[in-house]
Design goal:
This protein is mostly beta strands. The protein is built from 1 helix and 7 strands; from the N terminus they run βββββαββ. The protein is 4% helix and 48% strand.
Length: 91
Amino acid sequence: GAREVHIRGEHGEWIYPLEGTRTLTVSGPLGDTIVQADDGTVTVVSSPCPEQSCVRAGRLSAPGQWVACLPNKVFVTLEGRAKEGPDAVSQ
């Protein structure tokens, strides 16, 4: 199925398809968090939070992965179905 990035911020929620490249600015209480969707992956490229753990989290590439900037109240989730394949392999 189609994959999407779901972004929740202090002022709303947004859902975008993961096609192409787009840069999204999400305003929070500390300032702007910048999220980039590129070629099916999502990353927080900058945020005004002091710890920067959201930026250091790296790229999200699989459905169900998420990253949060708690001080700036931004939550990013990668949604959709994973590529079809076996759930498990046994011998």
